[in-house]
Sequence to fold (151 residues):
Amino acid sequence: MERTLIIVKPDAVQRGLTGEVIRRFEARGLRIVGMKFMQVSRELAEKHYAVHQGKPFFNGLVDYIVSSPVVVIALEGTNAIEAARGTIGATNPAKAGAGTIRGDFGLEIGRNLVHGSDSPENGLIEIANFFTEAELISWGRVTDPWIFEGR
Ligand code: DAT
Ligand code: MG
Fold:
């Protein structure tokens, strides 16, 4: 099943929104397969955001991601990438719809609370950047047949 990397970013952790963010993904039906509280190193932040290297906001973005501990989560589900990005909302919270995490809790693009992978390929790459194989657990929930049809 498709997997996505979620980061509960420093602003969300500092504001006490970690539980609220996780609650929304859980309620959506996505299954947690890995989760940890960690301090991201500058090296890992630069690797994670390598595609943005050279852009004017790159240094601020890296500063932001290393500015406080974060919670990283690997989520699994049908259509996990698109589902998670829908729950997260548009990149700029000013433009994110009500009912999304960014639309409900954010105001500025540089404080947009959550990261979600943008493609199935990047989901797997990003999860491998943040988790070892041993930290990822393949498991089933008794509720899975009520969330995933035919399982
Ligand atoms: P997303 O996080 O929605 O996938 P992205 O991958 O395009 O967005 O960019 C990564 C992060 O970089 C984003 O969450 C916030 C920051 N960012 C993107 N575009 C920006 C801009 N024009 N100005 C400032 N920060 C920006
Ligand atoms: Mg992105």
